[in-house]
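REVIEWER CHECKLIST
Item 1: Sequence provided? yes
Item 2: Single chain? yes
Item 3: Sequence as submitted:
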Amino acid sequence: MRFPSPFSSYTFLIARRYLAPSRRNRFISFITAISVLGVMFGVTALLVSLAILDGFDQTLRSNMVAFVGHIEVSSFGNRPIRNYQKTVATLPERVPEVTRISPFVSREAIIRSGSGLEGVVLKGIIPGVDVSSIRDRMVAGSFSFPRLDSAQLGRLLLGERLTQKLKVKMGDTVVIFAPNGVPSPDNPPTIQQFVISGIYRTGMAEYDDVYTYTSLDQAQHLFEYPSDQVSGYDILVKDINKANEVARKLDTALGFPHYPRTLFDIFEQVFAWLDLQREPIPIVLGLIIIVAVFNIASTLLMVVLEKTESIGVLSTLGARPTGIMKIFVGQGLLIGGVGTMLGVILSLAFTLIQMHYKPLKLDADIYFIDAVPVALTYWHYLLVISISLILSVVFTVIPALIAALVRPVRALRFR
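Item 4: Structure as written out by the authors:
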């Protein structure tokens, strides 16, 4: 049994003809163009908003992983963790989800240059096993700390914004003041000079201003840690979406005083803000498409009024009511299809331009990043295209039914 096409050739041809510009009634052509533009802007607004929301999520995650990995294990009360070498060697076997582990020593300190001083977090790491992505964000120098003799100054990596505040550059010398406990005449801070050997930039101003890096042994010496003690571990796992589950396993495997926290726990406020933006925006912007397809329905109602005489002629020539319906449903699908296609092209162009050239900038002090982030997610396009076309067809049913119920005799007498 052969099933009929939803739009036979003559119905689709007539639908296209009815939408063609007409000298007799230019108003119909005008409101048709308005309907197409309404769908186009609705689709563009929804796709662009989804691209920006996904871009924020992916960019913030990658930038935050640059500082702490997927999971950070510290200790209660900031106590030093002993025998870190054993933990580094055995933890991946005890918790198979762990792919990399990096010990670190991290404490607050004060950095001073000839132009001023700033509070920082000084983090001592081993570059060869470090899990952060700072090595991929270097704008000057290198992500390495060569072995030094006692006569040489330690090496230090700074964020680009911090170097601007301190008015320093590669090769300059700065002084680190590292308090160990409450500073007093009997407990002065440790003071040590460092040479700036690298400058990084993640685009997150709040963290580029604060985090500085040196070698693990330099940090241990500065903060008076024995060589077998560290502040904690940065850990990468196989699947970041299972970080909470792995954190619970680490808590059991490592025991007290270890305190594992995921990326989502450490930056909870940022992700809460992102979730707050993610939930209502697609719903609100989705209403734009619904309003746009209402315009399609009103356009078709006007077309029905204008083409009433033609509908009577078609009925007289043998066109069935279902055929008349298909003509007007086809019109709605054409209007929605053209508008959707233009919206997809416009949103895709915006996304690609912003991804490669970043013309839209942000205040990094407020938004954590310095440019509007976007992400190209193909299933968003499939979803929005499908919804737009389905709504375009659904909202043409009433005008199509009205056209199908027109009686030939009354239609031929209609003026």
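Item 5: Key structural point noted by reviewer: DSSP finds 16 helices and twelve strands in the chain.
Item 6: Recommendation: ____
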